[in-house]
Write a structure and sequence with these properties.
The complex is a heterotrimer of chains A (278), B (240) and C (324).
Chain A (H helix, E strand, L loop, with lengths): L11 H26 L19 H8 L3 H32 L5 H7 L2 H4 L2 H15 L1 H5 L4 H22 L3 H10 L4 H12 L1 H17 L2 H6 L4 H8 L4 H33 L8
Helix pairs in contact in A: 1-14, 2-14, 3-8, 3-11, 3-13, 8-11, 9-10, 11-14
Chain B lengths: L1 H5 L3 H33 L7 H12 L4 H12 L4 H8 L14 H26 L2 H9 L4 H30 L2 H6 L7 H9 L8 H30 L4
Helix pairs in contact in B: 2-6, 2-8, 3-6, 6-8, 7-8, 8-11, 10-11
Chain C lengths: L6 E10 L2 E11 L4 E5 L6 H9 L6 E6 L2 E2 L10 E4 L11 H5 L1 H5 L4 H14 L15 H13 L5 E5 L7 H18 L2 E6 L2 H7 L2 E6 L2 E6 L1 H6 L4 H6 L4 E5 L2 E5 L4 E5 L7 E8 L3 E8 L4 E7 L11 E6 L9
Helix pairs in contact in C: 4-5, 5-6
Chain lengths: 278, 240, 324
């Protein structure tokens, strides 16, 4: 009886705010989808033409374009590598902050905001200058985007992991596991990771959304990623490009949601609420 | 050093002021709307998946920008936009009222599309950290819901909300792909100018000016992030 | 100090979905007394307290303070002081600002507010730490401040929701006696919720034992302990042996069981386990017919018996109540 969940009803103002937000966020996507999938100019749109000439041709044309697939594959490969790099660097950092140095949390968190501080152009120019002399092969490779994107995603990935780690009693978990004889790698894989699956899936999806949305750096370094391809093909096939944008947005949101749902169901079996702790 | 001075005089100074104004306004509106949205979503307990949907969408929308976002708003509020057209059926003339998607007000509205979700993502943990017993204790001591927010809820959230505002400011300051895609007005933005001077494929002969502007921008951002760190530390006191 | 008032629960019923938290719950809390709601978790005691505070609305029934029906009054209009299980001090306010929060809500002038706040802090011996922030205090200190905060507005009724359960044993005893001393001194009508029978016996004027949303028994601690009205009460308050001796069913408290060292090995049983509690010793005995009995004996130097000792088992003179 320690925790009694208050069962107050959602007040009216909350529904009003949520409805207004939904309109603001959904309308532009609908308008873009309509442009992408309906071949009727807005000026001619009326009661009689509302259901005319809906088509997926733009999107189909785009899928048939020989440049499309390489761009998609490149972006997917970069996504996977960026996710790997992010987990490799940010997970130990977040663990270290939570176990060893909670006092440094606000410092580290602010440090992860680096991409806001240094404009992407300066980042590319600075890093580009350095690498051109040290390792010229690096900037020639398409994968040189990976570290840039990992840095760009840092504000999101660190927060997501940190929130996840803070919600579990990490120190006790690690100590319990180690006192039972598990070596550190086993502890991390078998004990810590299963307890932060939500944070991990959040991190992975946030990283992917960054990679699939980034334009500036790719265009500065002239790498044929999906966003760059979409922007170039806009002139030839605007409907295809924007249709793809809508599709990507819907897909990532859905996948993101599905991932959180999946672990929710799993997590609820384990979650023990202690007192009224938030 | 002369480049540093040149970067903040004349039209360049105007560019800085324009960028700061746009960032501040979109951050302020984004912070207020984002906080309201977070507070509203916190009050929704059923259906249980509602908060998850909003979180998922916010994660995606906060990273949206560039041509897709610009075009989505052109198709909505542009001269040939869906909403512009719908409003004209009801006799309302959006363009005649001085609203264009490519002017200052228009760009601000478009920016809100990624600013509000970012605010939501940043402040959700703080809202979740508000303990129900604080609300109950306040009510028990005679505070109406309004006075609870004034004396307890908002003061506790204040550092997180201010931190969120600063983050939004920085976010708007360095995001330019959207404004650039929307209009030539975007060309006045500092990051666009830096790119113009530093791109390398055009010979402007003004590399130094580009570096100077980037340096100024970093100075501004470091100041903003310093303030952010202060607020972050303060909110950490009671959110271990 | 304010005029204390009686408080009444009249046939209060509350359900959460399919679970019945309170069923036709009626109780009178007398002016100035400390009444404890005691029961296992899920018995409805916290729900009763939250309904009194106005955090939950009853499905049926009424709540009265004095002659006034407050059933439909929102929480912030009620004259109730509450102390929560988790330290619920406002983290951004200093100790004194926490204590005077209620007075501020009543728009009491700042000077008077501070004076009254300081007096409350003196009463809980926290007047040296007025300007600290809650996170700089220990658990016991926080709970004392919470007590001062709840009492500062001179509420009609003080509500305590397991206020001691987050504290460690020594601090717990300290804060417990402080609560008792303070409510007696101020004459505040108090409802204390706990699942700890020892705590309830020690602090209360009267105890209301609850189980599954209904009242099992209301009475003074001694009445409840010596004359339990149901086997639930007998089992929940204090320990109980249920044994059959000489063809008679008996219900006996461990301290009524008398063990004697016996060498003839004909009657009784054998001590299987012992545990030492300082002032007393506790024995687990297995009778020869297989029944288990717990006995408690006062500890004096040299009086202890070891596991494995053969003993005779006798029931003390006191009358053995047989509930049911």
């Amino acid at each position: 009886m320690a925790t009694v969940i208050s069962r107050s009803k959602t007040p009216l103002w909350a529904w009003v705010v949520i409805t207004l937000a939904a309109i603001f966020f959904i309308l532009p996507m609908l308008a873009m989808a309509r442009f992408a999938f309906q071949r009727v100019p807005v000026a001619l749109l009326g009661r009689n033409t509302l259901f005319d000439r809906w088509t997926l041709d733009g999107l189909v044309d785009m899928f048939r374009d020989p440049d499309f697939r390489p761009a998609l594959w490149l972006s997917l490969r970069i996504s996977v590598l960026t996710v790997a790099l992010t987990l490799l660097v940010m997970l130990p950092t977040a663990l270290w902050v939570n176990v060893q140095a909670p006092r440094l949390r606000s410092m580290v968190e602010t440090a992860t905001l680096l991409p806001y501080v240094v404009p992407p152009i300066a980042l590319v120019v600075g890093a580009g200058g350095a690498f051109r002399n040290l390792a010229p092969w690096f900037l020639r490779s398409d994968y040189c985007l990976v570290p840039f994107y990992a840095v760009l995603a840092m504000p999101f990935t660190f927060r997501s992991l940190d929130t996840g780690l803070r919600s579990i009693d990490l120190k006790t978990l690690i100590e319990a596991s180690r006192s039972l004889g598990a070596p550190m790698p086993t502890t991390l894989l078998r004990i810590v990771v299963p307890n932060i699956t939500s944070a991990l899936s959040g991190t992975i999806f946030l990283t992917i959304t960054v990679v699939l949305g980034e334009f500036t750096i790719a265009s500065l370094l002239l790498k044929p990623t999906l966003p760059l391809y979409m922007s170039y093909s806009q002139g030839r096939n605007p409907q295809g490009a924007l249709g793809l944008a809508v599709l990507l947005l819907a897909l990532t949101t859905l996948l993101f949601f599905a991932a959180t749902r999946l672990r929710r169901r799993g997590a609820e079996r384990y979650t023990i609420r202690i007192g009224a702790m938030p | 050093m002369s480049a540093m001075r040149e970067a903040v005089t004349g039209t360049y100074l105007d560019s800085f002021l324009y960028t700061i104004k746009l960032s501040a306004l979109s951050a302020l509106l984004g912070a207020i709307c984002g906080a309201l949205l977070t507070a509203a979503v916190m009050r929704v307990e059923r259906p249980a998946w509602a908060r998850q949907v909003v979180s998922s969408f916010a994660g995606v929308a906060a990273n949206l920008g560039g041509i897709p976002l610009a075009f989505a708003f052109l198709a909505t509020l542009g001269t040939q936009g869906l909403v512009t057209k719908a409003l004209s059926w009801f006799g309302m003339d959006l363009v005649g009222a001085g609203f264009t998607i490519s002017n200052f007000a228009g760009i601000t509205v478009v920016y809100l599309y990624f600013q509000i979700p970012l605010m939501f993502l940043v402040t959700l943990p703080a809202f979740e950290g508000l303990r129900p017993t604080w609300r109950e204790a306040a009510a028990n001591l005679g505070a109406s819901p309004t006075r609870y927010w004034r004396h307890v809820g908002l003061p506790i959230l204040a550092p997180s909300l201010l931190g969120g505002f600063l983050l939004l400011f920085a976010n708007a300051f360095s995001a330019y792909a959207t404004a650039y895609a929307l209009s030539s007005g975007g060309a006045r933005l500092i990051p666009v100018q830096i790119r113009f001077f530093l791109q390398g494929n055009t010979i402007t002969g003004k590399d130094n000016l580009g570096y100077a502007m980037a340096a100024w921008m970093i100075i501004i951002m470091v100041a903003v992030m310093g303030a952010y760190l202060l607020f972050r530390r303060r909110s950490e006191q009671w959110q271990p | 100090m304010s005029q204390s008032k009686d408080m009444f629960f009249e046939s209060v019923t509350k359900t959460f979905g399919a679970t019945v938290a309170l069923e036709n719950f009626s109780l009178t809390v007398r002016s100035g007394e400390l009444l404890t709601l005691l029961g296992p978790s899920g018995c409805g005691k916290t729900t009763a307290l939250r309904i009194a505070a106005g955090f939950d609305r009853p499905d049926a029934g009424r709540i009265l303070v004095g002659a006034i029906d407050i059933t439909n009054q929102p929480a912030h209009r009620r004259q109730m002081g509450m102390v929560f299980q988790s330290y619920s001090l406002f983290p951004h306010l200093s100790v004194i600002d926490n204590v005077t929060f209620g007075l501020r809500m009543q728009r009491v002038a700042p000077n008077e507010r501070r004076g009254r706040g300081l007096r409350m802090l003196e009463l809980v011996r926290m007047d040296g730490l007025t300007d600290r922030l809650p996170h700089q205090l220990s658990g016991g200190q926080q709970q004392r401040v919470a007590l001062a905060r709840a009492l500062a507005t001179q509420p009609d009724v003080l509500l305590l929701d397991e206020p001691l359960s987050a504290l460690d044993a020594k601090v717990r005893a300290e804060v417990r006696s402080e609560i008792r001393a303070l409510t007696t001194r101020l004459g505040t009508t108090t409802i204390f919720v706990t699942h700890d029978q020892e705590e309830a016996l020690g602090i209360s004027d009267r105890i209301c034992v609850m189980n599954r949303g209904i009242v099992e028994q209301v009475g003074s601690p001694i009445e409840i302990y010596d004359h339990p009205k149901s086997s639930f009460v007998a089992g929940f308050v204090g320990e109980l042996n249920r044994i059959r001796l000489g063809g008679v069913d008996l219900v006996v408290r461990p301290e009524q069981v008398i063990l004697n060292n016996c060498h003839t090995a004909d009657t009784g049983g054998e001590i299987v386990a012992t545990s030492f509690h300082g002032s007393f010793m506790r024995y687990q005995v297995r009778l020869d017919d297989g029944q288990a009995v717990t006995a408690i004996a006062k500890h004096t130097p040299g009086s202890g018996m070891r596991a494995g000792t053969r003993v005779t088992v006798k029931i003390g003179d006191e009358k053995n109540e047989r509930p049911d």
